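In this supplementary section we document a worked example of the pipeline. Step one takes a protein sequence of length 235 as its only input; no multiple sequence alignment statistics are reported here. Step two produces a three-dimensional model, which step three serialises into structure tokens for compact storage. The input and output of this example are shown verbatim.
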Amino acid sequence: MKRIFFSGLKGGVGNTTLLANLACALVQAGERVTCIDLDSKNELRLHFAHQWDDLCGWSTLENNTLEKVAFADPDGVKFIPHGYKASTLSEKKQLVSFSQNLILDENEWLLFDVPNYANARSLGLKDDDFFIRTVNCDVSCHSIINQRKLMHNNDDEYFLINRFNSAVDIEVEIARLWRQQLPHMLPVFIHQDEVLKEALAFKNVGYNCAPFSVIKDDFQALISWLKLHFSKVAE
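The serialised model returned by step three reads:
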């Protein structure tokens, strides 16, 4: 089982949208994928053709019978919504631990949508788990990264650039600085694409709505890099 935890460095960086599109890309590449929403905003479900007014999820259960709130979208992505009830960090950590007992395929990908205040240590992740911080190439994210570097060590987190616009000089410069200064910056990134916003209106992902979009190449590159990472972990 390959467990990847995605969290935005701050709100609004497109973390949930990125995760949903990656899940779809993996399934279309022949992989088995299950997504679990740990964020109380309960938004991941909106990308998977889920009923807008269906607010049930793991937070509404009295026990860990997750099968009762597990769904699958038309592409075959399995997902477990958060539900409308707020959850504590301790409850999220408990669910992460419990997810190891799910009856999944040995090579299944388990993707978690994590709120931006949580980190790998607070969720009690294992050594072979992978934690990714989604960032935008803007001054706000650059400032937060520098503050975090001064405050504590984040060697257990990797950074992934989302919504990259190569036509904007400051984004190109910030990306260059990060790649020079941050040892855990992923060598791939996801371009800015308006279709990602439009796809949500159809309860879908941009990966489906724009078959010839450059983001399809971006997600294929990301999948290739992740597969290489997990193959090295398994050695």
